[in-house]
Write a structure and sequence with these properties.
CATH class: Alpha Beta
Distance between the termini: 34 Å
Strand content: 15-25%
């Protein structure tokens, strides 16, 4: 009996310590999930089951569906009026009438969140955009995203929704694709629209991929008024593959600050365990 009571006290104390350590992590984002992809352990969560708009985080699913279809990466795709954003009226540097290999559009959609690139990828899928969206939702169910819904390939529609917990599953799945790992972490890239302006330089929308203190495998940012600023990553921290999901980070630098706080917190926690 005494041993049972002692064991209960030890477990209770361990739970309280873990709770206190979680509370020491001050994440400003409305919802968050920090997940160890190696041992499937949730390190930290905040409003992780709240269904929220995910903006251009959608493009990770767009990339997986495109790659799963095994379409020719070198097939040239022409940007048309159908790819122009008529919902949010966002701008693009890809002119209507210009054409690019599919792999170039995929890279721009992932690294720089190019909306026309993502729209063109969905439009040119076998069966068109409706078939593409159906494949997105089917893929979501397959990888266990039970509280998610996709309605377009760009994320411009605020009806693209998910939970932070579901997005941790999506990031983990996307890490299995070499093209996503490469394209989403490309720091800068040049493309030629075939006009007199010459090559266009694109930079990654996540400044952390240019930070030598980070070892990032997968990265994607997102922003809509309805979604706030979002960031998802898989990165190696203290030797472990860690998935970070940050949703609705209001303020230009909050999501970057949150990511750095998570990294520092894990490193400090790991250091205490090894001491």
């Amino acid at each position: 009996m005494k041993q049972a009571i002692l064991l209960f006290c030890i477990l209770f104390l361990a739970t309280q310590v873990a709770f206190a350590q979680k509370n020491n992590l001050d994440v400003k984002s409305e919802a968050a999930m920090v997940f160890n992809a190696q041992n499937d352990r949730v390190i930290y969560d905040k409003n992780a089951d709240k269904v929220m708009p995910i903006a251009s985080i959608t493009k990770l699913m767009t990339a997986m569906v495109t790659l799963d279809a095994r379409l020719s990466p070198n097939e040239r795709i022409t940007i048309t009026q159908a790819d122009v954003d008529k919902l949010k009226r966002t701008s693009s540097r890809l002119p209507v009438g210009s054409s690019y290999p599919r792999h170039e559009l995929l890279r721009l959609a992932l690294m720089s969140s190019e909306n026309r690139a993502a729209a063109a990828l969905g439009r040119t899928y076998p069966g068109g955009i409706n078939a593409f969206v159906a494949a997105m939702n089917q893929k979501a169910r397959k990888i266990g995203m039970t509280n998610s819904r996709f309605v377009d390939s760009s994320g411009l529609n605020s009806n693209n929704v998910a939970t932070a917990r579901d997005l941790a599953k999506m990031v983990t799945a996307s890490n299995n694709y070499a093209a996503i790992r490469e394209f989403s972490t490309t720091s800068k890239h040049f493309v030629s629209p075939g006009n007199k302006r010459g090559p266009l330089q694109y930079v990654n929308s996540n400044s952390l991929v240019r930070n030598q203190d980070w070892a990032i495998n997968v990265s994607k940012t997102g922003y809509l008024n309805e979604a706030g600023r979002c960031l998802v990553m898989q990165a190696k921290i203290s030797g472990q593959p860690v998935v970070i999901v940050l949703l609705n980070s209001w303020g230009k630098n909050t999501r970057i600050g949150d990511a750095n706080r998570v990294k520092k917190w894990i490193e400090n926690t790991q250091g205490r365990r090894q001491a």
